[in-house]
Amino acid sequence: MKHLQPYRLFESRFEPIEWSGGDVTRMPIIGQVITKPVGPFESGTYDIVEILDSPSGRIYIANRWYKRGVPQLIHQELVSEFIPEDK
């Protein structure tokens, strides 16, 4: 595991989290999540490279960038199913 980099989410709602850092697009995929439809958005499928346990629930890190240096995060409350990668 590479050095941990602190990453702060919206502090008014979520606690700070730490992820392993590095290029998420090059990390091995450990599974997929299917998200719940929310408002006008349909459900989606994301490849997952890391799962973090936090006091507010699991946080899934996708293998894509939300913005430069910040990975796409999917919170447990938005996940309808997690499918582990077969090895």
Top keywords for this entry?
single chain, 87 residues, mainly beta, SH3 type barrels, 5-stranded antiparallel beta sheet, two-stranded antiparallel ribbon, globular, disordered N terminus
Short description:
The chain has 87 residues and is mostly beta strands. It has strands at residues 5-7, 17-19, 31-35, 45-54, 57-67, 70-75, 79-84.
Q: Would you mind describing this structure in some detail?
A:
The chain is mainly β and 87 residues long. The protein has one domain: SH3 type barrels. 0% of the residues lie in helices and 51% in strands.
Topology:
Blueprint: E1 5-7, E2 17-19, E3 31-35, E4 45-54, E5 57-67, E6 70-75, E7 79-84
Antiparallel strand pairs: 1-2, 3-4, 3-7, 4-5, 5-6
Based on DSSP secondary structure assignment, what is the total number of beta strands? 7
Helix/strand/pairing category = mainly beta
Number of helices: 0
Which CATH class? Mainly Beta
Taken from the alpha-carbon principal axes, the silhouette is: globular
**Count of the separate structural domains:** 1
**SSE ordering:** EEEEEEE
Sheet bearing the most strands, described?
A: 5 strands, antiparallel
Distance between the termini: 20 Å
CATH topology: SH3 type barrels
Rg, nearest Å: 13 Å
Mean pLDDT: 82
Indicate the low-confidence ranges by residue numbers: 1-13
CATH architecture: Roll
**Percent range for helical residues?**
under 10%
Report the β-strand fraction as a percent range: over 45%
Cross-sheet strand order for the largest sheet: 6-5-4-3-7
